[in-house]
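Can't paste images in this forum, so I'm doing it all in text. The chain is below; anyone willing to post the predicted structure tokens underneath?
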Amino acid sequence: MSAHRALRTAAVAALGAAALAAPSSATTPGHNGRIVFGAVTTDGTSQLFTIRPDGHGLRQITHVAGDALHPDWSPNARRIVYELDTETGCTLQVIRPDGSGAETAPGVPGANCEGQPAFTADGRGLVFESFTEATNDDAIWSERLDGSHQRRIAPNATDPNVSPNGRHVSYVAFGNADFQQSLVLDRIRGGKPTTIVPFDADVAIKADWSPDGKRLVFTDNADRPDVSANLATVRKDGTGVRHLTHFTDPAQRAYAGSYSPDGRWIVFRAEDHGQFALMKIRPDGTHLRTIVPFSSFRPRFIDWGSRPRHGRPHRRH
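Text version of the structure:
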């Protein structure tokens, strides 16, 4: 049996054991556009690619000297921000969807590395992780695209993502004794963190808000080699955890990407015995579909962008 068929068979069997409620529809749905992700190329660097949700039209959009990581679509899908890692450090780059027009976003003065960026809900700013070696400070910050209005939100955290209403930011916190990671919700201005998925879940460094702002998708058991990692969603108050995949073989794993702009799908990377695929699934755990079939090509840092309707932008997150 092929790796793809084995994973799909396991998924269907696991799903048959659980009856899950259908997801609520997004309050401000957008048209589903292209999916962006990173992958290692033949020269050994990580570059960014985009693809249509039907698996056609694969394009490499960056050809940088270094590693292009952690892309995020702007709410109007006219820009992508990503982390560029080079031998001299890491910076935030903003590009057009075809990879042109690259600009470096200003960072925190004195910082050595900035990464894990995401746009704010209005598209006018960024949230990101910033590390300053001189003070050993690693924290989540926010700023406008021109570098003004910088604000330190939370320490010892990564993967910030802003809620659709712009009021909150989620992030992955680290630092417990067992080197596990939790999912935390905070005000965009900082100061009121709430853990919604605890450290013992060991979440992966990639989560995303549903377009209606009611739930977040995450991966559990991210760094535990003896158990499988699975997709799950949770309400923003930390209740109602819902597993979408139910793999039990440690060699079969699912890593969250993001919701689709219309809220009807979640895109993720599937792993099966050293092979990788880009897949999508309904938020109730049904209708598993393949976008890029299993191979050695490994999609990472996956984000689904919107397609503007009649030239007008739609907010995704």
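Residues 50 and 59 are 5 Å apart (CA to CA). Confidence is low (pLDDT under 50) at residues 1-29, 310-317.
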